[in-house]
């Protein structure tokens, strides 16, 4: 495995063209997709023909330093989901999004906080990032708690995208959290 980043319990790596089934399985769980699609799975052909090619193209675009990274338990190697650290499509490279999507079996184990904390460290010490942001639905208290554990600051409320209006709680909109390099260094 070509490791991008390691934590105490996790190894993150770049996805490969052979990983479509991992993404399909992850996106087929209604609980995982609850705050993204209202629980509807991502069609396997979309994962194979759109999502995975976009992930791989991101590595090319950002030199492999930014993008979507597969997360595995170091003990046993089980795939637990993915983490994201990347700019907006045409955004500045020193302003990146932090996020994750984990299998239910990995929930409640501190993996989201552990992986996110390590990515913040890499972003601010190795990648020249100035600010990291994360967004979620207002009603997604689990993700909001993780952002607060990371000492990210609630920066703004955001409207619900039109393709997410069917999601339970969409009428409450979303939230955006941020942390700057200076804030991170003061922790």
UniProtKB/TrEMBL annotation:
Domain N-acetyltransferase stretches: 10-182
Any Pfam family: Acetyltransf_3
PROSITE patterns noted in UniProt: GNAT (PS51186)
Protein name (record): GNAT family acetyltransferase
Organism: Streptomyces albospinus
Lineage: Bacteria, Bacillati, Actinomycetota, Actinomycetes, Kitasatosporales
